[in-house]
Sequence to fold (129 residues):
Amino acid sequence: MPKNKTKGSKVERELFQIFIDNNYRVVRVAGSGTMENADCDLIAGKKGRKYCIEVKSSKKPMKYISKKQIESFIIFSEIFKLTPVIALRFNREGWLFVRPQDLRDSGKNWVITLEEARKKGKKFAQFFG
Fold:
């Protein structure tokens, strides 16, 4: 498995466990990150709250996500009536959770910097608590 796929799977499993530890039901979406039709990485829920989660990690203080990926992610979340959430994990920062509308248009991609994620994002307990 290529290194970035391995890292992606590792951070997905880490977040999966955080949901479990917080009494959520959660599933990893098969083929996320590798298959064309996997539109999100995790689906999590508990009593009346349901989330579609796209997991992103970055060594750099900035994360770019293709417009096509975000568009598919939002359509998927709407079809299944899930709240779309982007889970960001910057190196040595921990998890920050943002909504798709928190991303900034950079031309052909959406982008969010670590600074913007700190301002607009929330920690797990704040977002899902």
Q: What stands out?
A: The chain has one domain: 3-128. The radius of gyration is 14 Å. The mean pLDDT is 92. The beta strands are 25-28, 42-46, 49-58, 62-66, 83-90, 94-98, 104-105, 109-113.
